[in-house]
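yo

u said u wanted the structure for the complex thing, so here. seqs first:
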Amino acid sequence: MIAFFTRHPFALHALLAIILLVAAFGALAVGQVPLSLAQVWQGLRGLGDGLERVIVWDIRLPRVILAILGGAVLGMAGAAMQGFLRNPLADPGLLGVTNGAALGAVIAIYGGFAATSTHSLPIFAMIGALLAVALACVLAGLRSSPYSLILAGIAISSLFGAGVALALNLAPNPFAAMEVVFWLMGSLEGRSGAEIILVLPFLLLGVGLMLSCGRALNALSLGNQTASSLGISLPSVQGRLIAGIALSVGAITSVAGSIGFVGLVVPHLLRPLVGSQPSRLLSVSALGGAVLVLLADIAVRAIPTSGMELRLGVVTALVGAPFFLWLLFHERKREGL
Amino acid sequence: MSTFIVKDAHVTLGGRAVLNGAGFTASRGQVTGLIGANGAGKTTVLRLLAGLLFPAKGQVTLDGATVKSDIAFARRVAYLEQHPASQWPLSVETLVDLGRLPFRGFGAKQTDADRRAIDRALGDTDTLSFRDRSVNSLSGGEKARVFLARALAGTPEWLLADEPVAGLDPAHQLTTMQLLRQKSQDDGLGVVLSLHDLTLAARFCDHLVLLHEGQVLISGTPEAVLKPQHLRKALGIKAFSGIHEEESFVLPWSASSN
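structre next:
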């Protein structure tokens, strides 16, 4: 099966796209008011009674679209990061994007800005994410090696993380702290078309920048020296990749909170199916990430809880971590280690 | 005639003067061998030629123009690093195809010319049978040949290779050197390579550059370079040499205390 997909990349894309489409229909049907597939179809076409149309169009569709966009961006950013650093354990969060967004969000919540306008939280989070990455770049130096960049990213990430922890520590009341904690766990609950429109330009720009690096990522499998000798300009690739990851992951984190594990697991999972080619892994990981986040969001809504809905970041980690472990053991057995 | 000229090159790496005033000329259609002790500056010279490193003083030119690694240069000059490796378990064919990268536009598909160049490179390096295997499943020597195929797949005018025969079995050392000499004679490929085997250097190189402490001790024909006094000074060895089947061999015999 692996050999088949390696030879026919289109088949893999098509299969993932079909799974995604089916999952999307499922996601439209699942929720507090369960709808049949026929009702979903009616609602989508604007037919049926008003309730179905409102549930499908105004409540569930924005959420489904955001899950797909978010998962796609996280999957692709993970693949880009792993290809760039030539390390299967790399994750977009290494650059400080996630904690930067978190600190921005915390400032918006505590400053009272989040209460005055719905857009201010995502905007603050986005600024925080970009600021963190920019600081990491400046700290590492512009023409730095990937490794000094990662070290700077980890340092900045910890610093911003400490800022978030400090805010929790000094929280004026438990509700403010709760709000931050819940935001950090990631959720797509109650998101609307407005948020999609807000982040879409950043997502598209980021994805475009990442895709422009595909060939360079292939060359980088052979190391910096050989990649340079093949005419790849490393500073240009590094600049485009970091900007692409910061913009897209920053944007999605600013509206959905932190959704862990997708960027790490999805590329790792799909790598064998594309013959390990970093350029092919980008688009495939985008589809895979979208499927994973969408399924996790279905689980969030389908699993009954008393009171609060489960958080998306919690579910991706709960499902992702054991699966990842299983995969690692499986690989180890196959390699006879 | 296309030539690489290194003139009075000074390079300092990590506070150590790796090259101080090295200079030589390499011509297309010849195999130029860089020899010298560990740390003499062979790898640094190759990286200078490949445009991956720039001299603090002095200059490196290809046909009169200062060397600069960009796409146009990458189409003419292939670089094969020492101990090449692939981070991901790519198939051999995919890996060799990376050598075609400078010729392929963004999002472009493999062309017939690409496929011909890949087939030829695999055939030349005796690696056609590995084609569909993962690079990581190959032995060290097989891997070295596959990476040589990657460099040749770009149909370069010049090949800069850092110890291309290190780790190969004796038969493949001979066939690889034979292949490179043949490519230089038949296709006009310019080859600059570093190596430690003095007999291979004597038999297969047209031109040798003996590096010693960041400078060129002597360069010229193998007979002129591989003289006992040069070997003693630059390599610290006494060698046993002779002629077999009208070709000379040089066998390091004892380490002299200078």
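Chain A touches chain B through 23 residues (CB under 8 Å). The mean pLDDT of chain A is 89.
cya
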